[in-house]
Amino acid sequence: MQYIDRLQVRKRINFRLRLNSILKYVFLGATLSGLVVLAILLIRTVSQGFAWIDWNFITGHLSMDPEKAGIMGAILGTFWLMLVVVFFTLFLGMGAAIYLELYAKKGRIHSLIQTNIANLAGVPSIVYGILGLTVFVRLMDFGSTVLAGGLTLSLLVLPIVIVSSQEALRAVPQTLGEASYGLGASKWQTIKSIILPTALPSILTGSILALSRAIGETAPLVVLGIPALLIPFPGGFMDRFTALPMQIYYWTLDAALVEEYANLAAASIIILLLMLFILNSIAIYIRNKFQHRF
User: Fold this and answer.
1) Please, how many CA atoms are within 13 Å of residue 217, restricted to the half-sphere of its CB?
2) CB 69 within 8 A of CB 52
3) What is the pLDDT of residues 1-19, one digit of tens each?
4) Nearest Cα to 200, choosing from 174, 175, 168?
5) Side-chain half-sphere CA neighbours of 187 within 13 A
6) What's the pLDDT tens digit per position in 102-144?
7) What CATH number does the domain located at 57-290 have?
8) Whether 86 contacts 151, CB under 8 Å
9) For the chain, how big is the Rg over CA atoms in Å?
């Protein structure tokens, strides 16, 4: 019969405690490093661009003169673009997730589709830009319009919404569905009244992340030929447009020639962050309403 060596146990406990302390500070350092970089970027952007934000800058037209340049056209273009992305991404993403998770039979084809969707989530955004250029701009002859840009960005974030929605549906307790079936409800009634409302807060969380990525994408819009200097304001889905990420991109490039363009780019970044904050706040409010309701 072997007895426990108290000295050996004490050494192991001390080692684990030291390792725990070391890893705690390592993880704290990793967290602080990200926050420090983010803080530096925000401070630099705000200090450089805040003084350039005024009513004329927000409501004015784009101009080659930095003192007269405005971004209302880019703001409206971003707004119309996100309307298309929200509509197509949420409906197609949630519909595909419901079918794959609750209707489709499990098998090789189902596994193949799931694998491809997961792989599509990691495809570079410029590839989606080439796809949008080929299908929406040239084949369907939409041109460089809001609809073409919105559909391209919808394809970009669609895999993210599908995967996150499936995970949310899987997290719903199976007993809720079984209880609904036991009361005589059909499958669609169970999905509509029980499963989907329960999973909706988590689905909206994934959708928020997807839309946050879409609103800041530039590469697909560059491939689609979206202009940076567009005088008319877009007023519909078939109008040509520019967007805030495009304007920031070109102003950053032109800053090597005109120094004031760097300040305009910083001011546009602040406006884009405010739009993103408002969009996320609305989505979070809706999500919390459903969490309290169900």
Assistant:
1) 31
2) no
3) 456 677 787 888 888 889 9
4) 168
5) 5
6) 888 888 888 888 888 888 888 888 899 999 999 999 999 888 8
7) 1.10.3720.10
8) no
9) 25
